[in-house]
Every structure is written in C-alpha cells, then in structure tokens.
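User: Batch of two.

Assistant: Item 1 of 2:
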Amino acid sequence: MDNNFFKNIEKKTGVNMKDVFDLASSLQNANFKDEKTVRSVIRRVSQIANREVSKETEDKIVESIVTEGKQLDFGTISQMINKK
C-alpha cells in the first residue's frame, strides 16, 4: 500500500500505524482462550485508540471472547469500547 495512505489515516485518527501493525503482528500466535492474553490485548488497543475502557466493559469483552468464543479483532473491540 501507498505510504501516504497510512499517513492520511494517522492524521485523521491520531493512531500511529506502526503501533497498529506491531499489535497485529503480536496477535498472530496469541492464545485467545487465555483471559490474561485477552485482557492485555484489550488494554493495548485502548491505549492505541486513546480510549479508557472501564473494568465492566473489559470484563464483558473478555467474557465474550474467552467464554463465548467471539472473534477477537479490531472491529469487535472497537464496537465494544465505543458502546458507552
């Protein structure tokens, strides 16, 4: 992809694309049945997005992923974080 494309995304969102790519890379072999791993990912995504996630919201996300088997992706986490 064109480097300008990513720079435009960074400008519009304030999210550093290197952080996003680093996170995506770290997720490739992560164990999403492990609560500690899922909590770590949620905290990292909230940090990258500069959004605070309440303990209640974090617990709901963890439950839906670890217990209910929902997919862990940026869309899922983003939707849950933005439901306030």
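Item 2 of 2:
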Amino acid sequence: MAVTALLDLSLDPARLPEAHRVLAETLVATRGFDGCLDVRVTADVEDPAHVVVVETWQSREHDAAYRAFRASPEGRSELGTVLVAAPTLTVLEQLDI
C-alpha cells in the first residue's frame, strides 16, 4: 500500500534562494529513487521559509529504503546547511473509512 511522507522543513529565511536551489538538487535523487511515485514542495503562505515536502511512496518498504539511503554517506545532501531547525518526518497511510 502506498504511503505519504511529509517532511516539514524550516529553511533559513535569509538564504531562501540558496535553500530552494539545494532542495531542488536534493529532490533529483528523491524523485529518481525506486518506489517514489510523486514529490511536491509546498510553502506556508504566511512564512515562505516553512516548507513541507509531500512524497508519495509505493510502499512503507520503499520509503524505509529511501530513509536508509539518506542516512548513509552516499545519500547525504547539503540540505542541512540551509535549515534553521531539525526536519520533522511524518509517514501516513490512507485509511479506508
């Protein structure tokens, strides 16, 4: 079953153009990762430095494999250099109700 991952980011407001560039570069690998069905980037209308990346993964296993990749030396990105707080990740499954 597909899952949706919400990655809540607090970008450095003084470095938004650079942060957007780094995020775009980072998401190239995300979009190309096995099991990635969709990636959208949304910004808070009141605070453009507050960004939520909405990812759809084919399964929990695909999402877990991606998170393991990002935690490895090969998967590290420069995203941490443009954040002012630690990111928050929430993984959601659709309920059939």
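Residues 2 and 58 are 4 Å apart (CA to CA).
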